Structures are given as structure tokens and as C-alpha cells.
Amino acid sequence: MRKTKRYPVQNSNSLWQIYQTISFFKVFKNTVVIIIGRYTPFMRLKNWMYRMLLHMKIGDKTAFAFMVVPDIMYPEKITVGKNSIIGYNSTILAHEYLIDEYRVGEVIIGDEVMIGANSTILPGVTIGDRAIVSAGSVVHKDVPEGAFVGGNPMKIIYTKEEMEKRKVSLREE
After folding, report:
1. Quick one: pLDDT at residue 164?
2. Pick from 76, 152, 151: which is nearest to 108 by CA?
3. Considering the domain 5-172, what is its CATH architecture?
């Protein structure tokens, strides 16, 4: 189960009530920063913008590829460890606006994690150190350290131990 906090709403769907749940000015500022960041080819500048203007926690040498979209409403709930790669056109969500409620949850991505292109990471998920998420995956639950996962819905393809055995057998060939 993902770790999210639930907020029930009444009368209309939660997205219709968005500015009762979050400041318009915060969303506007975050949108501008993210649009600029999506197209910025300089990793240091992009990370600085995300750290200073969106209050994301980002480790050294982490790379957000072209067109990555961090959460627009709650980017401060995203943590990415050091030396990780977030692949092209991926989305990291820290919120979900549903019909009867909205949910908010921390997203924690460990050190040396590889997120493949066009992946979506849902709120309340933790991805362990040295994990690999294959391209096009929907990460809807926690990913163990060192695992290789993929698909929609995401499944464990190889555990950390199986990945280590594969690396050893490839070296021996």
C-alpha cells in the first residue's frame, strides 16, 4: 500500500476544488519553474532551480533528463538521492486528485537509481538504492533496493540477488 494522506471532499470532484486545497500562486510559480526546467539542458542549473525554487531534495550528480515532470503542486515532497537518473519524459507525482478525495504522499528515490524513459511514479512510493525501473513503467508500490522492475502495473523482474548473479555470470562470459 502506498503511503499517502487522504483528504475527503464534497459536492464536486477534488480537482474542481484545487485552489481550496493549494495556493494558485504556488501552482503558478511551480508550473513556470518546471516548464523552464523541462527544457534546460544544464543539469546543475536544473537541479539548482528544483532545489531552491521548488524545495525538492536532490542529491549530487543526479540527472533529470529532458522533459521530466516533477509534481507541480507538491514538489517539496520529492526526494531523489545522489547519482540517480530520471529518464526522458518521466513524471513524478506526489499528489492524486480523485472524485471524492485527494491524496498527498512523499516520493523517495534512493541513490544510484535508474528510472527509464516515460515512466510514472505515483505518490507515496519509495524506490530503493541502486534499483532500476524499466522504460514505460507505472511505479505504484515500493521498489526494493537493487531490484529491476518494470511494466504497467509494475512487477519485480529481478531481485537484488538475481541481479548480482546476472552481473557475475555476464563477467564470466
Report:
1. 84
2. 76
3. 3 Solenoid (2.160)
